[in-house]
Amino acid sequence: MKKSTPTIAAERQYVIEKEKFVPVSHYFGEDTFSHKVMKEKLPKDTFKKLMEAINEDKTLDEETANIVAHAIKEWAIEKGATHFAHWFQPMTGITAEKHDAFADPCGPGSVIERFSGKQLVQGEPDASSFPSGGIRATFEARGYTAWDMSSPAFIKRNGISTTLCIPTAFISYTGQVLDKKTPLLRSIRALNKSAVNMLKLLGAKNVKKVYSNLGPEQEYFLIDMDYFYKRPDLVLGGRTVVGAPPAKGQELEDQYFGSIKERISSYMHDVEEELFKLGIPAKTRHNEVAPSQYEIAPVYEEANIAADHNQLVMDTLKYVARKHRLAALLHEKPFAKINGSGKHVNWSLSDDNGNNLLNPGKTPQDSIQFLVFLIATVRAVYKHADILRAAVASYGNDHRLGANEAPPAIISVFLGEQLTQILDNIQKGTVTRATNAEIIDLGISSLSQVSKDNTDRNRTSPFAFTGNKFEFRAVGSSQNIASPALVINTIVAESIDELAEKIKSQAGKNINQAVFDVLKSEIKYIKPILFNGDNYTREWEAEAQKRGLPNEKTTPAALKALITDKALRLFDKYEVLSNAELKSRYLIHVERYIKDLEIEVKALNNICLSQVIPAGVDYQKKLAAAIAGAQDVLGSQAVFSSQKELLKKILDMINSIYLTNKEIQAKVEAAAAIHDEPKKAEMLGSKVKPLMDELREYVDALENLVDNETWPLPKFWEMLFIC
Ligand code: ADP
Ligand code: MG
Prior knowledge:
alpha+beta; Ubiquitin-like (UB roll); Four Helix Bundle (Hemerythrin (Met), subunit A)
């Protein structure tokens, strides 16, 4: 590679001075306006009113809001904050914030720090430049942000600037949602209602609320910043569009869980320190499968907070990387032919007494409850596998799902052998009367061991039951987990309600008997979605087709599941997304796919014409001159066949690169005339994408032919192994 030799990165000193050690428990959450801080800073009755508002989903009266705002402001200023910002999650997939100074002029030449209840509760960012999918024309770009009291305000430090961030929902003035948080909050509400009703039906007492919990395992790559800035494709699109695979990849399996390099360890330490200050319980860190790939997993939290926290984790990974002269890559597939990054989202339900409803439990009653929620979830996944697939569809994630990489685009559920056996027993109906003794006879007593039976964990399944939670593994590493979470919550809410209806209609039976009779037929119904085998095989693909399971490999095809009558009815019924909102989201995702692809096409064009071809021509010139020069000296009897062959290959590659690139540009230009966005996305995906892959093959072949000194881009082996 030109100029920057690999040793630059390797030799640089990265001694990060460690400040005096402070135990995490001393500063955990110090930058959040947590319940603990609220209790400390707010008058008793204000705190009580605020808690009621949070727990019962009520709005705050103006007077209370003013008192809370004053307390938050004082606290934030103490922390060094000069500004406040409503922090929200528009459809861009990342977070947005507009800062306003606390300082407000008061009389000539002086200011006073001010922050009112109104400013806390509602903001009015200019919404015109956020994706709305046609919901709101630009000329009436009025949107507002509303404080989400269920997620704590926090301090964001960036260089020497400090800002108070208030988590908010982002809504248009006509009341339509423009963000990812609002529908998640609505889905949490819907699931709570359905689950509490079900628990009551099953005879549970003292349960007022059911929470959905999320534990996202975030994968990412780290490379030296010098390399990053020399790759326009990485800088602009997050993924290398060209680059030959290194001689060594992950085949030695020496990266996974390997000892962490010093530079990376220091980085992780810094990341965690930032997260701990924000009250994010970062728990697990390790090397992942691919070279330079890592994972961070916090302890699971309530869905809304976990989703906010995952956004902050992604931000922090990137922000701290810069301080360490590293670049954190969150793209689903930064390096072709090297494992991509996903985000396993662990999901469970728990009640307000702290019981995990997906925990098999010890008593027969616990077991029945467990089976109901387990089967309700599996049933939901079966009924709406297409929507779940759509929820993780993106241009980047197409490199994982549907390509030959984990997990496949076919959504199926893994339950493990033991649980499958128990369900089989129930379905075979050896039980005639659901007395406690008979329930135990069924082998259900062994359910309590299911949670411990984690040994045969199937890593290939997109939706796996892992003892006391489900793990949704198809989520992309860069995605906002609110989207898949709101889908899971909504489909499970519906499924619980449908089961409840069926149970209630079993007239004249005791509740256990009614439940068992319903479960019996439901277990039969869900059979096609259950699969314990290897999800990567061709055989499974064929089998899944026989079972009628959807298998959409591309985003334009998968997204259509969002606008079927089934989906529109579902999200409308549960008041998560109206038809107009869902349709707009569909369009936003389609448009995003087009934009992501077009950015890569432009980057590819630029790299080919201004870097790759010139490098090829340079080397071609050198070779041609060498052959001619040698011929002058040695005469024509000398052997030149190998150099001539090499020269010919280089000419061929340059030719193929030039022509394929030209063809891509022509196709993209033709696509510009298609005004139907879904059609355009499909055309680009089916006609342009394969050509981009073909072009890459030529470029990568050329990379392996030309002089290393001449090649203008950092190579895979450098980026992945030198750090
Ligand atoms: P693995 O990589 O073996 O799947 P990790 O320890 O990396 O497991 O991550 C597991 C994730 O699942 C963590 O975020 C953890 O907090 C989360 N988790 C554990 N129990 C639950 C639960 N009941 N509900 C949701 N998430 C959970
Ligand atoms: Mg893990």
